[in-house]
Design a protein that fits this description.
Distance between the termini: 7 Å
CATH topology: TIM Barrel
Order of helices and strands: EHHHEHHEHHEHHEEHHHEEHEHEHEEEH
CATH class: Alpha Beta
Strand content: 15-25%
Strand order of the largest sheet: 1-2-3-4-5-7-10-11
Structural class: alpha/beta
Number of domains: 1
CATH superfamily: Glycosidases
Number of helices: 16
Number of strands: 13
Length: 441
C-alpha cells in the first residue's frame, strides 16, 4: 500500500464509522417499535436480533471510542420513533437521546441519517414511496427529529442511497418491498427526491446550528473497450446509476439520455411534473455524502435494449471492481462539476465471510488493504484541493446485510450473533493505529 506521509488530511477532518439502524439495532418489537417493510421482506433472513445494538449501545460506543473514532454516522429507525397513528413514541425518542448522551460522553460527533430504508409497514401498505403522500409523512417525521435532536447533531442526512431504495426496492425487487415494476420504481425515486427537498426547505426555517445534505450511492462506470458502442453504454449507465439523483438535486432535471430506454410514467416527463417539484428537489444543500464501494466495467449488448430490465443487461456489469483510484476520479469529478459543495465519504467498505481463526484473531487483510488504499486516494483528492471533510468506514459492527442476510460481514468489529460477543478484527486494530498516527494507509 502507498504511504500517507505527511498526512494530507487537515486537523478538523472527520474520521468515523457508519451503520444503519435496521442492520444492527435488533429489538424489533421493544418499547413500542412498529414493523417496517423490511421486517416483512426479510422475515426469513433471521430472528431480528441483529447486533442487539439497542441494548448494547453503551458498550459499543465505548469500544468505538477505544479505537479513536471521531464521528459516528448512524440512522434513526422511523418505525421506532413514530407510532402507526402518527404520534411520537416517547420510548423510541428516549433511546436516541441516550445514544447521543453516550456519544457526547466520549466526544464523538454524531452524523444522523433520517431514512436508511426502514419505511413503516403501515405506509408500505398505502403504496410506500410510490404514493406521493409518503413524502408528506416523511417531512412530518423529519421535522420531529430535527426539533427533538437538532441542537445536539451538527450533520444531518435526509436519505441514504435513494437509488437502492427505489430501483432495487421497486424495480428489480431485490430490496424491500420487493416489487418489480419500473413505473413504480421511477415514481418512488421522484418522491424520495421530493421528500428530501421538502425537508431541506423546512430545515432552513428551524435556524439550527447544523448542516444538511444527502448521501448518494456512486458507482464509477468504465467502458470495457474503446469502441463507440461501449462508450455510449457507459454513458447511459453513468446517467442511470450516478446522475439520476445527482442531476435533479443540483437543478439540472433528470438526465435525458437515461430516460430514453424506459417507458416512463408521465410523472417524469418534465412537461407533466407537478408544478415546482424540480425547484423543491433542487433546494440548496450544505454538503453531499458519497457512498462508494466499487466501480464497474460495462460493455454493450444489443438484444432488446429498449425495456428496463433488458437495458440493465445490455450494459453488462462485471463483479464490482475494487479499483481505489476510481474513488479519486469520482471525488475530483464531483469537485470539478459541483465545485461549491463540500463532500463527505459517508460509507466506504468491503464485505467478506470473516471468521475467527484458531488463535482467536479475525485476519481480514483484504479489508485492511481496501481501506488503506482508498484512504490514499481520498488523500490525493484532498491534496489537489477537493473539499472533502470526512471519511466513514462502512461499517462499525457486523450486522444484517441487505443482500445476504447474515452470510457476509462488513464490520470492523466482529459480532458472534449467538452470544453477541464483540471482537476487534485486524482491520479495526489497523484503523486505530492509523487514527493515532502510528501507521500509514
Amino acid at each position: 500500500m502507498e504511504r500517507l506521509a505527511p498526512s494530507p488530511f487537515p486537523p478538523d477532518f472527520l474520521f468515523g464509522v457508519a451503520s444503519a439502524a435496521y442492520q444492527i439495532e435488533g429489538a424489533l418489537s421493544d418499547d413500542g417499535r412498529i414493523p417496517s417493510h423490511w421486517d416483512v421482506f426479510a422475515r426469513t433472513a433471521g430472528d431480528g436480533m441483529g447486533s442487539d445494538h439497542y441494548h448494547r449501545y453503551r458498550d459499543d460506543i465505548a469500544l468505538m471510542a477505544s479505537l479513536g473514532i471521531l464521528s459516528y454516522h448512524f440512522s434513526i429507525a422511523w418505525p421506532r420513533v413514530i407510532t402507526e397513528d402518527r404520534k411520537p413514541n416517547p420510548k423510541g425518542l428516549a433511546f436516541y437521546h441516550r445514544l447521543l448522551d453516550a456519544l457526547a460522553a466520549h466526544h464523538i460527533i454524531p452524523m444522523i441519517t433520517l431514512y436508511h430504508w426502514d419505511l413503516p409497514e403501515w405506509l408500505a401498505r398505502r403504496g410506500g414511496w410510490v404514493n406521493r403522500d409518503t413524502a408528506g409523512y416523511f417531512t412530518d417525521y423529519a421535522e420531529l427529529m430535527l426539533t427533538t435532536y437538532g441542537d445536539r447533531v451538527p450533520l444531518w442526512i435526509t436519505h441514504y442511497d435513494p437509488w437502492s431504495a427505489s430501483f432495487r426496492g421497486y424495480g428489480w425487487g431485490q430490496h424491500a418491498p420487493g416489487h418489480q415494476d419500473w413505473g413504480e420504481a421511477f415514481s418512488a425515486a421522484h418522491h424520495l427526491l421530493l421528500a428530501h427537498g421538502r425537508v431541506v426547505e423546512g430545515f432552513r426555517g428551524l435556524n439550527l446550528r447544523a448542516q444538511i445534505g444527502v448521501a448518494l450511492r456512486f458507482t464509477p462506470v468504465i467502458a470495457e473497450t474503446e469502441r463507440e458502442e461501449d462508450a455510449r453504454a457507459a454513458q447511459r449507465a453513468d446517467s442511470f446509476y450516478n446522475r439520476w439523483f445527482l442531476d435533479p438535486l443540483f437543478g439540472c432535471g433528470y438526465p435525458a439520455d437515461a430516460l430514453k430506454p424506459f417507458d416512463l410514467p408521465r410523472l417524469l416527463d418534465h412537461r407533466h411534473l407537478p408544478e415546482d417539484d424540480l425547484a423543491v428537489i433542487g433546494a440548496p444543500m450544505d454538503f453531499l455524502g458519497i457512498n462508494y464501494f466499487g466501480s464497474q466495467r460495462v460493455r454493450h449488448r444489443a438484444e432488446d435494449p429498449l425495456t428496463p430490465v433488458s437495458w440493465s443487461l445490455s450494459t453488462v456489469w462485471e463483479e464490482p471492481q475494487l479499483l481505489p483510484d476510481a474513488l479519486y476520479r469520482l471525488l475530483t469529478r464531483l469537485s470539478r462539476e459541483y465545485p461549491t459543495i463540500p463532500l463527505y465519504i459517508t460509507a466506504n467498505g468491503v464485505s467478506d465471510a470473516d471468521s475467527i481463526d484458531p488463535t482467536g484473531h479475525i485476519r481480514d487483510g483484504r479489508r485492511q488493504r481496501y481501506l488503506g488504499e482508498h484512504l490514499v486516494q481520498a488523500g490525493r483528492a484532498v491534496q489537489e484541493g477537493v473539499a472533502l471533510k470526512g471519511y466513514y468506514v462502512w461499517s462499525f459492527l457486523d450486522g444484517f446485510d441487505w443482500n445476504n442476510g447474515y452470510q457476509t460481514r462488513y464490520g470492523l468489529v466482529y459480532v458472534d450473533y449467538a452470544t453477541q460477543e464483540r471482537r476487534l478484527k485486524d482491520s479495526a486494530l489497523w484503523y486505530r493505529r492509523f487514527l493515532a498516527g502510528e501507521e500509514d494507509a
